[in-house]
């Protein structure tokens, strides 16, 4: 077995949400005045402010106040030079743009776990976030009482609404993506459906353009990693989604797909390409449903993620698996499941990081300790 690739130098990762410690803030009344908040905010970093809101929430503070504090902190640490925060401007910019997932996941937690039923039961339609954020802020958030000018107050209010609306788009968009992916999975592959058959034949042409199929049912399908003479029997639980993701990979990442196919045909460490791809579809869908793709999507996409964004993640995870397989150098394809399990453990660990972004990941990241 080959040794792991050399680890590259990486910056220190942010501490986890639950491990961050701040002095307990005693909330004397449910109607906390902003004048009492400002001194604490003025000596805190951008990340500390987010945790301060969560700390207040967990300390039995009113749910509405906690939510207000969180969005308020997000707004002032993104744009406001009014307060003398400890981070330099360039550091604040890096912090906010590198770990956007921290803001959105924390807000999602506050929305779902608030002591206020008004917040817990708050629902909105995808696309209406700006209006709903304005309504929520105007009806539920305490008024701002501080000294900036009228123009600064207007800018603050606009920033507050934008921060909340942006996070709401990501939260609702992720839920919608889970539904869209499940809809595609539940469509069973049907050999009598002309559209399904065309997609299957397209996959063959993309992966093996120089060789024609002499028949629909043929052993040649095994050349691209199907188990038998008829690929229709291999999609099973992943339905049409499994086929569509293989086609997406072969069509939009052609060079990498052919490189991965070539690895799968290796005489000693080869594996069934198409079957592995369907397995990765199952794995990627599982990550999605368990919320493990939230950090990636919240860090990499400002708006709601689309089904194509999900397909792109599939391509990246499948590619990483092939690199991981090549590094592990298994004795035979019989080692597929043990290697897959080790890969799952490493990729899950990465996805749980606040900084997770599969657009930037390289295989060395999976071997970092």
Offer a quick outline of the entry:
With 369 residues, this protein is mainly alpha-helical.
Compile the SSE list and pairings.
Blueprint: H1 34-42, H2 46-58, H3 63-79, H4 89-98, H5 100-113, H6 117-120, H7 129-140, H8 150-185, H9 194-207, H10 239-252, H11 254-264, H12 273-289, H13 294-300, H14 307-328, H15 336-351
Helix pairs in contact: 2-3, 2-5, 3-5, 3-8, 5-8, 5-13, 7-8, 9-10, 10-11, 10-12, 10-14, 12-14, 14-15
The count of strands amounts to 0
> So how many helices?
15
Radius of gyration: 25 Å
N to C succession of SSEs: HHHHHHHHHHHHHHH
Overall pLDDT:
76
Question: How much of the residues is beta strand, in percent?
Answer: under 5%
Indicate the percent of residues in helices.
55-70%
Keywords: Coiled coil
Domain ELMO: 195-351
Protein name: ELMO domain-containing protein
Organism: Steinernema carpocapsae
